[in-house]
Amino acid sequence: MKIIAELGINHRGSSQVAEQLIDVATSAGAWGVKFQYRGQAGFYQAVSEIGDEILSKEIDDSYIPPEDILALAQYIKNKGLAAGISFFKFEDAGNFGDQLNTFDFFKVPSAELMNSDLVSSMASLGKPLILSTGGHTEEDIFRAIDSTRHVPDICYLHCISNYPVLLGNQQMKFIEALKQKTDAEIGYSSHDQDWEVCLVAAGNGATVFERHLTMDKNGKGIDDSSSSDPAEFIRMCRLLNAYSTVQGSGKREINQGERINMQNLGSSLYASRAIEPGETLSATNVVLKAPRKGLTWAELQKRQLTNIRRPVAEGVAISELHFTEPKPPLEPHLVAFCDEKQLSIPIRLHDAAVLQSRFPIKNNELHLSYEEVAKFGASMDDGLAGLDLSRHYSIHIPDYIDSKTLIDPLAADADIQSRSLKVIETCVDLALELEQHSGASVPIVGSFSRILPAGKAATYDRLHASLLKAGRDRGAPIYPQWLPRIAWYFGGAEVLDMFCGEDDIDIITSIGMELCLDLSHLILSANYSKADWAVWCARLMPLSRHIHIADAVGIDGEGIEFGEGDLGDPTQYINGPGRKVLEIWQGHLSEGDGFDKAIRQLGEKNG
């Protein structure tokens, strides 16, 4: 979508106000900013009627000379936006001399749609041209389209020239008629009282949007009531820029948040007593409970699963594994490949024995829940009893300190801060304990996403100091993890603003903060910003001390199979120094089938 902030006369003739409006358009995510220009003297010949007097005075009071408009146009371009201008007569374009080429696009306003001399003169400038169609009959509009078909890079805007347009007067279906008449881009010039009708325009096929921007929509200017203030404009840009993503591909695909919710909110079969191999499942030995950690009756019937082939302890969720023989360990040559490349897989306390048996590799990353951290805090020996202490470990701090609270060592709430620091302290204690057993360092990774009211720079400075004190000063460095822009917290999606944007890279680089680089998260966050993830990667890699490797696609397709996303060939990362954790989404399920497939893929290519 191309969203143009029309400044019109809302700058009140002030370059300073114009700059403020340009800054709003930039932060909102607009594509361009446009001026209107009328020569200072003699544009209105007759001013005897009251409407003429009002409009003439507004235009005169809002005049900005060409040299100042050119400076503002450069200001717009320096912000990365397109600068445009509209003229009501071509003679006024001459006031800009040979610097007219500064502008990236031109527009013919609705009132001059049938001014063939102006249209042809503007088209001759060789820049993209926009024609607005307000106040004209269908016949006139279609005649204007026919007469400009030869103009390359032309766009037509549906427009209702009331100020403001009341709800119900938009005639939005006419956009479809315009699209049938031309292959050119079709947009909507909005003077609506309700900016939300721009979303209806998008639904009818508009891809270019022009909306007046003002600092005060209740101001005394004649355009204020048909304009958007900064808050409205930012929201409009956010929704329109997300339009194609909201629409999707037309296919119904399940996202990670849904999978988590289906698991947490759904139910499955659990053993109501110990079940021996050879038994058939029935109401006498299973019960339906939440969460959905295993199979349902419908899934059993669909897969035609009958007799249990492995013993099932009371309270364990019934899974497909219970209808199969135990899976053999990873072959020695693949184990050697993993150890040579220092590849690691995530394990949890509850599946550590199974995964460490199937994957006898040297490196593991221990992903902890807040309850498991508490277990280690209460008795380090009891927690360690479930782990192979000859392995080399890294530790992933839990995202939560309880079922309702994200970890935040800088929280203003003293209780949240204290409990967050306690979780981190226990993870450091565990890291030092594991290092004593294995003789290898134990990196610690954590996700920190809360911004202080003081702003990002202050948050990063304080977080950096806090983690150095809690970790490195005790001999166990803690690396903040690069995050996706959209995180699945508490079963829903949250848009983050820490460790996920180009401005974050600037701050991290300036303070020399070392981090864990998650390539899957990096791809997702760069895609969200419509940036090249490889460029971000090149900037972050010098600060990366620990790496998570997985493929990703779009803005929330995390941890997908290698080759299915935007990562491309992972060889350079596999062959890089240090430990690399294979962060395959739900790779631990079915005794690690996802990890097994990933290791085989990588081993065949890089072994």
From TrEMBL:
EC class name: transferase
A biological-process GO annotation: carbohydrate biosynthetic process
Residue stretches making up the PseI/NeuA/B-like domain: 21-251
The entry's keywords: Transferase
Gene Ontology MF terms: N-acylneuraminate-9-phosphate synthase activity
EC number, as in UniProt: 2.5.1.97
Signal peptide annotation: none
SUPFAM superfamilies: Aldolase, Xylose isomerase-like
Superkingdom per UniProt: Bacteria
Pfam families per record: NeuB
Protein name from the UniProt record: Pseudaminic acid synthase
Gene: pseI
